[in-house]
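EI: anyone free to look at a 259-residue chain?
SC: sure, send it
EI:
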Amino acid sequence: MGLWARIARVFRASTGAALDKIENPELVLQQTIRDMRDRVPELNNSVAQVMATERLLIKNAENLEKQVVDLDSKIKASVKMNRDDIATAYIGQLQQAQLDLERTGAQLEHASLASKQALKARDNYVLNMKKRTAEAMQLISAAKQAKLQEQLAQTMETFNIGDDASTFNEMREKIDRRVAAAEAKLQLGSSTVDAQMQDIEREAMDIQLQDKLLEYKQQMGLLGEGKSTTSKQIEAGSEIKEEDVLEEVLLNETKQQSN
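SC: here you go
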């Protein structure tokens, strides 16, 4: 293969690839439909011309037939009047008219056949145009659907692989970090010194209430010998459980009843 042939092949290949990228099937099909519809008036004009030729030949044939009948009558009249010279002239015209009529009849047959073929061709073209138009509309609809599916596929691909997915993951991690930090701060706040001091104050208040309860029992004479020890232990700050105090009170009451 020569150099120029290879260059021409590369040029055709490049041009074809560029045209494939630029060419829009939907627009091409729409233009094809318009071109087919634009040819219908041209076909109608051609068929009309063929039919007009047929009609003209029909009229010529009718005129020739009348002329033949008229010349025949004139020949007969001339013969009756013994005018052979005139009859001979009319006979010559009659022969020419008969030849013209025969030739016109042959032309009329061809014109009639051409007219029928033209009409048939026009009808076939219209039927084919309607069929192609329906197919083109289906292809255009399929092309639109394919374009929509391509756009959806690109959108889903971007959503699954692109920035949107990474953005969602990044925001999810950031929110998880904030929730963990807030929980840690809440846990830390519940174990601070202030919270511990509040617990101590609550315990001190309970001790004061227990002291007040023992004071009332002592005034009412419900406490026995162990009252001083218990009071001293309370005053010394030792921890006394409510169950122990109640048990001691019940013991003293039992001793007093036995005495």
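EI: The CA atoms of residues 5 and 197 lie 99 Å apart.
SC: 👍
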